[in-house]
Design a protein that fits this description.
Layout (H helix, E strand, L loop, with lengths): L2 H18 L14 H6 L54 E6 L8 H12 L4 E4 L10 H8 L10 E2 L13 H7 L11 E5 L2 E5 L4 H4 L7 H12 L4 E5 L16 H9 L4 E4 L5 E4 L15 E5 L18 E5 L4 E7 L3 E8 L7 E6 L2
Parallel strand pairs: 1-2, 2-3, 5-6, 6-7, 7-9
Antiparallel strand pairs: 1-11, 4-5, 8-9, 8-10, 11-12, 12-13
Length: 359
């Protein structure tokens, strides 16, 4: 039992003794949910392993201060929860994580503005799945093209690096613009806590990241991070998908996927393909695995335009595919399950949603 809960119990026992002696009229009530609820009330202290608590409506990690409002903006507005997003007893908070990949094209600012308007109406933390700039990743592209649209949500954003982000000086303008919200400069892989969930961000630009293969610095870090955060619910975000009905997928991330699967990760979010594609839970060899498999959702629909699938023959386990709408993926993260919902740009009707328990 943590010190917080132990001291609470000790105080309550002392009060009960005082009650027996006639010194007080009540020995008080235990915290709602018992000692476990007391455990949950202790905020997680950032550690050196790369994981940290990320209040979704706080200033981005590179800001001088962070907000105490924490879960307010991340609380699901559709759920019956107190303002701080908490649930009674041991249920824990319900939070929202929303975003997409493949966001800005300076030649077509209307696309990223259409999806930024969706973010305007959805509280919570914001993710990106790479190619924040779909041009060359210059400083001017981030400030002049990303900034006016998705940039207005920078204070609640965490980003992944895409191949276009890495085009200029290995991504130096990308790291300079996003700061700590992009993870350690030159690495681009990191993790954070959101509600009851552990969120991992990887860098699938393998050369720039120092490798993605087994025993590479990134894969070693991932293995240690997973071991240090044995959360029931975990998701990972990076740019290049392992499975893709557009071009087959990126084999270079296979070892990262293997590590995620071995640790029981629930969900992988990718970009790169300018489409929406959702897969059933599967193992690293693309075999259906409804018990332990990872569900992959590719959501490269952030504003840079839509691709097309080359045929009507999709990869095994590919369940839903969409190319008709830009949009964002809204994830409602519960302590033991999650809900996904594709929210299309105004005027479009394609959508997809569902619920899944954590593994």
């Amino acid at each position: 039992m943590p010190d917080f809960a132990r001291s609470h119990v000790a105080r309550r026992q002392a009060l009960c003794v005082a009650l027996l002696l006639g010194l007080v009229s009540s020995c008080g009530k235990p915290p709602v949910g018992g000692p476990e609820a007391a455990d949950a009330a202790v905020p997680e202290v950032p550690g050196s392993d790369g994981g940290e608590q990320f209040p979704s409506d706080a200033a981005a990690p590179d800001a001088a201060e962070s907000s105490d409002a924490g879960a307010d903006a991340a609380a699901d507005p559709d759920a019956s929860t107190p303002p701080d997003g908490s649930q009674p007893d041991d249920a824990g908070p319900i939070v929202v994580l929303v975003g997409a990949g493949d966001i800005t094209h300076c030649a077509n600012p209307a696309g990223s503005e259409a999806t930024a308007k969706l973010l305007d109406a959805i509280p919570g933390a914001v993710f990106t799945a790479g190619d924040n700039s779909n041009d060359s990743g210059t400083a001017a592209e981030y400030s002049d093209c990303f900034g006016p649209s998705w940039g207005r949500h920078l204070a609640r954003m965490r980003t992944a690096m895409g191949n276009h982000d890495a085009k200029t000086n290995g991504g130096a303008p990308y790291y300079a613009y996003f700061g700590a919200a992009a993870g350690p400069a030159g690495k681009g892989y990191y993790s954070y806590e959101l509600g009851a969930w552990h969120v991992i961000v990887l860098n699938s630009n393998c050369t720039a990241a120092g490798g993605c293969a087994k025993y590479s610095p990134q894969e070693r870090w991932l293995a240690m991070d997973l071991q240090a955060h044995p959360s029931r619910c975990t998701l990972a975000i990076w740019h290049h998908p392992l499975f893709s009905s557009v071009y087959g997928g990126t084999a270079a991330v296979q070892d990262l996927w293997n590590a995620l699967y071995a640790a029981g990760v629930d969900l992988a979010i990718n970009g790169h393909d300018h489409v929406y594609e959702r897969f059933a839970p599967q193992d690293p060899a693309a075999q259906p695995d409804p018990v332990h498999g990872i569900r992959q959702i590719t959501v490269g629909t952030g504003g840079a335009g839509n691709d097309t699938f080359p045929s009507t023959t999709f990869l095994p386990n590919s369940e839903v595919h969409g190319t008709s709408a830009l949009g964002v993926l809204k994830l409602t993260l519960r302590p033991d399950s999650y809900r996904w919902e594709f929210v299309p740009q105004a005027g479009k009707t394609f959508t997809d949603s569902g619920d899944e328990p954590c593994r």
